[in-house]
Design brief:
The chain has 229 residues and is of the alpha/beta class. The chain contains 9 helices and 7 strands; from the N terminus they run E-H-H-E-E-H-E-H-E-H-H-H-H-E-H-E. The strands form 2 sheets. It has a 5-stranded parallel beta sheet, sandwiched between helices. It has a two-stranded parallel ribbon with strand order 6-7.
């Protein structure tokens, strides 16, 4: 089903402000949008500290950044969005900030991700699995993004993720990895997560790393942010 608009789609805004994984999981959607609307202006709104993740993405026309620590930044950004005249907005964050940014008197259509917050809350805090009881399964985040955009002609089955890096960054990463590989490293793990419900216990990682070394002989590199040391 195609979305019903009075005018053709020339300007699209995607909103996903954080965090690293969730932003990267929007890339299947970005690829499809560019293929379906090759001449459209496709902009992405992200928090300032995560903008580097998308700076080299060839499917985007422009990045809008939000500095959450700057006074008046949200209000100024809303004014900028309103004046730009988007034909459709994809709210893939669906929180108070994104709701405020999408609230216009004469707003364009806003397609929103379905978050199933009640089911998730009951599962995390009370171990009550409504997904299993209903015979359904929790959707992958990338699937949720794609399903939100189905009215635009998006195929929700195309989940291939992309990560585009500036050439200098990519070459630097390759060089560092070759040096590590020469020392016997062959696995990279990123064990950290902002929310405790997404963190595997450290002892489990330690056991997994030992099992990998026993079966492959390869050592493991752990990566993370400054507060995860």
């Amino acid at each position: 089903m195609q979305i019903q608009l009075n005018t053709p789609i020339h300007k699209i805004l995607i909103i996903r402000m954080s965090s690293i994984g969730d932003i990267l999981l929007t890339t299947p959607l970005l690829r499809q949008l560019r293929a379906l609307y090759p001449a459209a202006e496709i902009d992405f709104l992200v928090r300032k500290e995560y903008a580097q993740l998308l700076q080299a993405n060839p499917h985007l026309s422009r990045l809008l950044t939000l500095d959450v620590h700057a006074g008046g930044a949200l209000k100024a950004l809303k004014k900028q969005i309103r004046h730009h005249g988007y034909d459709v907005i994809l709210d893939l964050h669906r929180n108070l900030r994104s709701g405020y940014l999408c609230a216009f008197w004469n707003r364009p259509p806003v397609l929103k991700i379905r978050k199933n917050q009640l089911s998730r809350f009951l599962l995390v805090h009370f171990k009550l699995n409504l997904y299993r009881r209903g015979g359904d399964r929790p959707l992958h985040v990338a699937e949720k993004y794609l399903r939100a955009a189905v009215p635009l002609g998006i195929d929700p089955r195309d989940l291939a993720l992309e990560m585009h890096l500036p050439r200098a960054v990519e070459e630097s990463g390759k060089s560092r990895w070759l040096a590590l590989a020469a020392q016997g490293y062959g696995i990279v793990m990123a064990p950290g997560a902002r929310h405790f419900t997404k963190r595997w216990p450290p002892a489990y990682y330690a056991e997994l790393i030992q099992q990998i070394y026993k079966s492959t002989g390869r050592r493991t590199v752990l990566v993370g942010g400054p507060d995860e040391r």
